[in-house]
TrEMBL record:
Component of the oligosaccharyltransferase (OST) complex. Keywords: Endoplasmic reticulum, Membrane, Signal, Transmembrane, Transmembrane helix. This is Dolichyl-diphosphooligosaccharide--protein glycosyltransferase subunit 3B. Residues 1-23 form the signal peptide. The keyword Membrane applies. The keyword Transmembrane helix applies. It comes from Nymphaea colorata (pocket water lily).
Length: 341
């Protein structure tokens, strides 16, 4: 008699708590993701191994949402070459911009920004096949095997938030919208700067009228001209506009750094400075020959100076040509014009 009673008791429990064993509906998962997103100040949802199983491995495909995941490791934050903290901040900036620009639209529930920490989610790192950082992946609705999800190219990390936004639009086919960065100077700091300028204005005007400023020093103009020349030939403006890093970490070995990137689609900061330095050497030598060496009274000194300037200039130009050939694959060939027939 005891066994039928036990079976009846178990059946009654199952009938009372059916939701405990039934799979969650897609609407419930989306609602939970929205709730987690609202709890996060930046809109980035912190995932772990359990959340990966629940939101990605458990539901059948296609899922009604995509997840953009930033892979992080707290123990690597002290390595400046990886820039994990900066990239995490840029990732949060893209997340907040997407949430703001897509609020009230259908796309609001089609993409969620998440992050995974290595110590908390080592199993998930293995499922994704992540073995190097920085790393960002987007898991689209039809992806069942996590390792088959799309990863962001290393080159795009140099563009920070803009690169992440383009990656989202290219893979998830969703528009992030304009990225709103916080102002570099707060209103209080701006008021303090204006106050300092107003107080110092009479003293600055007095120094200018007396001709006792750095702007009246010829050596400063000379140094400024060399700096502007170096600034222009080193591609510094390109690096500033596109937020190019000075160097990047090697994906195959994060302990190694890459200073020269082979490929015409990207130029690192150190690479530009190296080329700019070579160009500046040639420019400064030309200026010395045409403006300083001509005043030397000794003809042998003039010849020696010209010879050294030519040798160094040829060496610098050869280095630039070699780097261009290595980077782009294009070689420079001699050309001798022939008469037209």
């Amino acid at each position: 008699m005891a066994r039928p009673f036990v079976l009846l008791f178990l059946l009654s429990l199952i009938s009372i708590f059916p939701s405990k064993i039934s799979p969650e509906s897609p609407a419930d998962l989306v609602a939970d993701l929205l709730a987690l997103q609202q709890r996060s100040p930046s809109g980035v949802i912190r995932l772990d191994d359990h959340a990966i199983r629940r939101f990605l491995l458990g539901p059948p495909t296609p899922r009604p949402y995509s997840l953009l995941i930033f892979f992080d490791a707290t123990q690597l934050h002290d390595k400046p070459e990886l820039r994990l903290q900066q990239l995490r901040s840029e990732f949060a900036l893209v997340a907040s911009s997407f949430i703001k620009n897509n609020q009230g639209q259908d796309s609001e529930t089609q993409l969620f920004f998440c992050d995974l920490e290595f110590k908390e989610s080592q199993t998930s790192f293995g499922l994704f096949g992540v073995n190097a950082l920085p790393h960002i992946r987007v898991v689209l609705p039809h992806v069942r095997k996590l390792a088959d999800s799309d990863s962001m190219d290393q080159v795009d990390f140099s563009r920070l938030a803009e690169g992440i936004s383009d990656f989202v639009e290219a893979k998830a086919k969703l528009s992030v919208g304009p990225i709103e960065r916080p102002p570099p100077i707060s209103k209080t700091q701006m008021m303090i700067l204006v106050l300092i300028l107003l107080v110092s204005a009479p003293f600055v005007v007095k120094r200018v009228l007396e001709g006792d400023t750095l702007l009246h020093e010829p050596k400063m103009w000379l140094a400024g001209a060399v700096f502007v020349y170096f600034f222009s030939v080193s591609g510094t403006m390109h690096n500033i506009i596109r937020n190019m890093p000075m160097f990047i970490a090697d994906r195959s070995d994060p302990s190694k750094l890459i200073f020269f990137y082979q490929g015409s689609g990207m130029q690192l900061g150190v690479e530009g400075f190296a080329v700019g330095f070579l160009y500046t050497i040639v420019g400064v030598l030309l200026a010395l020959v045409t403006h300083v060496l001509i005043y030397a009274r000794n003809a042998n000194l003039q010849r020696a100076g010209m010879f050294v300037a030519m040798l160094v200039s040829i060496w610098a130009v050869r280095k630039v040509i070699y780097l261009d050939n290595w980077k782009t694959g294009y070689a420079i060939h001699s050309y001798w014009p022939s008469p037209r027939r």
